[in-house]
UniProtKB/TrEMBL annotation, chains A, B:
<feature type="active site">
    <location>
        <position position="401"/>
    </location>
</feature>
<keyword id="KW-0312">Gluconeogenesis</keyword>
<feature type="active site" description="Proton donor">
    <location>
        <position position="269"/>
    </location>
</feature>
<dbReference type="GO" id="GO:0048029">
    <property type="term" value="F:monosaccharide binding"/>
</dbReference>
<feature type="active site">
    <location>
        <position position="301"/>
    </location>
</feature>
<dbReference type="Pfam" id="PF00342">
    <property type="entry name" value="PGI"/>
</dbReference>
<comment type="pathway">
    <text>Carbohydrate biosynthesis; gluconeogenesis.</text>
</comment>
<dbReference type="InterPro" id="IPR035482">
    <property type="entry name" value="SIS_PGI_2"/>
</dbReference>
<comment type="similarity">
    <text>Belongs to the GPI family.</text>
</comment>
<comment type="pathway">
    <text>Carbohydrate degradation; glycolysis; D-glyceraldehyde 3-phosphate and glycerone phosphate from D-glucose: step 2/4.</text>
</comment>
<dbReference type="GO" id="GO:0097367">
    <property type="term" value="F:carbohydrate derivative binding"/>
</dbReference>
<dbReference type="InterPro" id="IPR001672">
    <property type="entry name" value="G6P_Isomerase"/>
</dbReference>
<keyword id="KW-0963">Cytoplasm</keyword>
<dbReference type="InterPro" id="IPR046348">
    <property type="entry name" value="SIS_dom_sf"/>
</dbReference>
<dbReference type="GO" id="GO:0006096">
    <property type="term" value="P:glycolytic process"/>
</dbReference>
<dbReference type="GO" id="GO:0006094">
    <property type="term" value="P:gluconeogenesis"/>
</dbReference>
<keyword id="KW-0413">Isomerase</keyword>
Amino acid sequence: MQLDIGNALDSVATPGVSTDALDRLDDAVADAHETIAAGMSNARFGYASLNLPETTSAAGIERAVDSIDADAVLTVGIGGSALGAKTITAALGEANHFLLDNVDPEATNRLLDALDFESTAINVVSKSGTTAETLANFLVVRDAYEAAGVDWTERTVVTTGESGPLAELAAEEELPKLAVPDGVPGRFSALSAVGLVAPAILGYDIEAVLDGGREARDSLTESIDDCPAYAYGALAVALERRGVHTNAFMPYAEALEPFAEWFAQLWAESLGKDGQGQTPARALGATDQHSQLQLYRAGRHDTMVTLVRPTARDDREIPAVDVEGLAYLGDATLGDLLDAEFEATEASLAAADKPSIRVELDRVDEHGIGDLLVSFEAACIMAGELMGVETFTQPAVEWGKNAARGLLGGEETAEAAAVRDKREYRIE
Amino acid sequence: MQLDIGNALDSVATPGVSTDALDRLDDAVADAHETIAAGMSNARFGYASLNLPETTSAAGIERAVDSIDADAVLTVGIGGSALGAKTITAALGEANHFLLDNVDPEATNRLLDALDFESTAINVVSKSGTTAETLANFLVVRDAYEAAGVDWTERTVVTTGESGPLAELAAEEELPKLAVPDGVPGRFSALSAVGLVAPAILGYDIEAVLDGGREARDSLTESIDDCPAYAYGALAVALERRGVHTNAFMPYAEALEPFAEWFAQLWAESLGKDGQGQTPARALGATDQHSQLQLYRAGRHDTMVTLVRPTARDDREIPAVDVEGLAYLGDATLGDLLDAEFEATEASLAAADKPSIRVELDRVDEHGIGDLLVSFEAACIMAGELMGVETFTQPAVEWGKNAARGLLGGEETAEAAAVRDKREYRIE
């Protein structure tokens, strides 16, 4: 991964970061890197995530799923238990990876009506083995396979913690079982079995994904000047301190759309704490130039745009056309057009004094997505260090879980009572 | 559409709106309604959008596409020329509506490799007939059909303005041609041929979509107290004035995910002006409870969450399970679980003093999506009136278009020169 932060400098953007401020930031980055490096060495909670490219065994995952013969995968998980797998297979252009990462009955009915059970493996992922949405979906899916006369026990892989209902079930039914690694929060677990079982079943080279992650990990140094990952995290924090409260994440590659979703979870859940944290806004280039760009240019000076693109991709010629005003298209490829729009959008933000950061990867492939995942995890950890937040927890989501359990389970929690006390003001 | 604004009041949230402030706001809404109603009567630019449920002829669209025999539709358009059609067919659960609304060659290659040309109609939409992305894609698509030996002229519908290359092409090839209505900006055109050709070809009841829109249009009154659409727009503006710069739009229905994308365009492009405008953040319930909710609860007090759900939906039982701690799931349906999570999330935001608005529609169907589209258009127009911005233009996107044309066409525009002068600061 390479970065160009030129358009985030104060000579271009308002707010922007001065080169003096970058120098001062560099000292803080060096200190934080020490903490991070020590955390990695000691495999401390959270920091251990950055060790996954070393500690995950591609061969072990491949062996575990070897008995599964499938053309498609249905991943049953939610949040960090689904997004990593979705991000990786989407980056590789896979069309046969389906997800149940929600509990919308209409969407579930549609998906299960269309699924060819015989050729579809089930990849169920829950660290605790008790996640309500995931367990509910898994019960529904098992039932659907049974109703169709297809043996789900022959095509199910379980990824979970040491104990819990899913671990017990795996033992009972002798299902392949993989571990959610210790010390790794869900949103940092893409480069473990959590994210790699689905691509492994579908035949992708998951070792190459880990290779990409390894490259990102090995490029972590103590200075912004030669560490793109840390530079991204540090710049985002510096801009946030100057009022940039939104981070619009805009890849120019459709295959990276789920990566933007993964980034949104990483950033929001890790850094959205103590009244701090940038709001991630997912966008997609070039499409969202026709949607969000008006706001990014003419709205408040509170948004940075992260523009992401591969420097190489498969291309396609635009056929020549003999129409006035359109002939210029015929000399180009779709890739030329997309690159021109990328650079035009970047410059148009600068012309409006709005900060942006350019992120480039070599190619959207196994290696590239592994690199991106680990680079942005490191960026996020660096940001958390500089912000002084607890990067690896998500305490604010417990309230809602207690409320939902109370509402549904009949257990009268304080949270469920609060739901019933809602202040109504209806307009009909 | 119904609203509950109870959790946006200052007795619940910080910032929130007091009931006194609501009363004052109601006067401004009454004035703005006069402007809007007059604009509708005179079919003034932009305001004419709200007349579409009356002025669009479902029968006319159906007649025009009658000769097209297809099981699938490929829409070629971008921004407002694609999002409306996508929003409507997604709401109806359609899986065979494909889009080329970007110029990513890898995604285009994948889509065209998988498409069954024989059974797929082409729905090409561009008001000017010169939109670079749309014309490039259309040239590519025509070429792909020809290469496969399939006659594209037998299965193409053109929606465009009076003149321009697409209009000429339609005349030359005797293609069915529909008009982009006068006085209607792209992002407000869903209830015209722009949004309705695709569902019409796929056999949906587009008259029912217009019916839903008509109901929304007829419910526009001069007071917040009985007009959900205006109340939404007015509350969003009141909250924005109090520092709520982000609007997280979170439907609890997967079929409304593109609706959130449509809303994001509507809101950003209409209101993101003069240093104003809320940043729309797209989210999806319940999935994003495991992603964005930590930030929404524990981050800055600068975000409102718009929670959207249908009050009725097809459901699915969760099979009973004999596992400790999970048995409660077996007494419920997926819909029960989703509703419990909706209410739990809403209450959890209130417990963190964060404002939210509840939006409910009867059902996600033809009528429901028509209602939502027109209701939110009216909400947006009301917001624009209260903010004093030019709701119906998007001047800030021209810069980038000029730059891209300069870069690609060899025409040396000032914008293209600015792109070449980029300030670089590379980190590798």
